[in-house]
Every structure is written in structure tokens, then in C-alpha cells.
UniProtKB/TrEMBL annotation:
One of the Pfam families matching this protein, by short name: Trns_repr_metal
Membrane-spanning segments: none
Parts forming coiled coils: none
Name the record gives this protein: Metal-sensitive transcriptional regulator
Family affiliation: Belongs to the CsoR family.
Keywords linked to the UniProt accession: Copper
Species, as recorded: Streptomyces exfoliatus
Chloroplast listed as a keyword: no
Domain of life: Bacteria
Stored CDD domains: CsoR-like_DUF156
């Protein structure tokens, strides 16, 4: 089971909202809406994606990583390393 299993519906709801926002931006471009207005919506989409990513990361840390650490060994090191790389990717975006 994925670490976000208990909050899967919330994650899906967020992603569907983001999907709708992207479709809205496509429509704005089709309709030749002013550039700054389109960029404002793109910024909102980026913020929503970032928020969703942080929620997923939080679930991963509190479930998958915590369980691996409790078990110890190489799996714990691997999960912590994996989480660290995911955080680094999020920071770069």
C-alpha cells in the first residue's frame, strides 16, 4: 500500500482541481487572454502542484520512512536517501 493510501481521495481531488486549472489555462491561451493573466494562472498551478507534492512527501515520511527506520538496516538507509533525493528535486523546481 502506498504511504498516501489513507489520504488518496484528497490527493486525487487536488490533482483533479489542478487538471481543471490547466484546462482553464489552455482555454485562456486559445482565447488570447492577456499574457500576465495567463502567467498568474500558471503560477497558481505551480503552487498547487508544489502543495500536492509536499503533502505526498509528508505522507511518505510519516509512513514509509518511519516504518523503514523502525525496522532498521539497509532499508532504513535506502528510504531516508530516497526521501532526501525527492526533497532535493522539489527544492530545484
Amino acid at each position: 500500500m502506498a504511504g498516501y493510501g489513507q489520504h488518496k481521495e484528497d490527493i486525487i481531488r487536488r490533482l483533479r482541481r489542478i487538471e481543471g486549472q490547466v484546462r482553464g489555462v489552455q482555454r485562456m491561451v486559445d482565447e488570447d487572454v492577456y499574457c500576465i493573466d495567463v502567467l498568474t494562472q500558471v503560477s497558481a498551478i505551480n503552487a498547487a502542484l508544489q502543495s500536492c507534492a509536499v503533502a505526498l512527501l509528508d505522507e511518505h515520511l510519516s509512513c514509509c520512512v518511519t516504518e523503514a527506520i523502525a525496522q532498521g538496516g539497509d532499508q532504513a538507509k535506502e528510504k531516508v536517501n530516497e526521501a532526501s533525493k525527492a526533497i532535493a528535486r522539489l527544492i530545484r523546481t
